[in-house]
Amino acid sequence: MTLSSQRFNGRTVIVTGAGAGIGRATAERLAAEGCRVIAVDVSADRLTALADEVGGEVVTVSADIADAAGIEAIMAAAGERIDGLANVAGIMDGFEPTAEIADATWERVLGVNLTGMMRLTRAVLPGMIDRGAGSIVNVGSEAGQRGSAAGTPYTTSKHAVNGFTVSTAFFYTPKGVRCNAVAPGPVATSIEAPFRSEWAQTRLGPFFQTNLPPVAQPSQLAAAITWLLSDDASNVSGAVIPVDGGWAAI
Ligand SMILES: NC(=O)c1ccc[n+]([C@@H]2O[C@H](COP(=O)([O-])OP(=O)(O)OC[C@H]3O[C@@H](n4cnc5c(N)ncnc54)[C@H](O)[C@@H]3O)[C@@H](O)[C@H]2O)c1
Q1: In what order do the strands lie in the sheet with 57-62?
Q2: Each residue's pLDDT tens digit, 144-168
């Protein structure tokens, strides 16, 4: 793809999960469009590869977003002015149905997919409100629109991402801060999704065989995320946009 736009010249955007998949593609695209990218990942090795391979201004922060100390490290690296936040980092469950959920799985999935997103958003908001400008983009999932795409912990976390997005948009759009989400269908990334439940395999299998759209590329998600981060989407706030090859229409 040839990019001619420099929509993010002079801007700073934090991207979580920037070491792989959708987050990495988002970081690459932002850097190519002139952005100073604060690239966050729990994997230091992946961040090193990103910094080596991607041109432009990329500041790497090795941090766990589910950890309060991680949020502090991200904010310290970003500095005073933060124009955008892409909450991309997330993990799958093991397709556990409710009766089979281990507390540790529930806490980790909700901790990363929801609480981490809340804490980092809460941290960037005061600066954005002071400047009267900012854009926050959360990565949800088609699992946030239906019950037949994942296990209960992941499905719960992604439905909550939608609520978090619209509530944040409701409160802060009048202050100049937009908040939106994208809901991907299947994307070719390194996310791990092992089936740990026999009943889930039986129940979900037929849906996966008949209903799934073709697997998308991370760059297709990055295009939607960077659009929402940019001023091209200046009148869009509180939207949860399916970027899923039409799955939401089924
Ligand atoms: N791949 C898909 O099919 C798909 C579909 C729908 C939604 N999503 C969502 O897209 C987002 C990105 O997923 P992906 O598919 O690109 O996965 P990925 O595993 O390829 O990339 C996610 C990155 O986030 C990092 N990460 C995980 N936990 C972290 C934490 N606690 N703190 C900081 N970094 C952390 C990982 O190290 C990894 O580099 C997730 O929110 C996921 O739920 C993915």
Answers
A1: 57-62, 36-41, 12-16, 84-87, 134-139, 177-184, 240-243
A2: 999 999 999 999 999 999 999 999 9
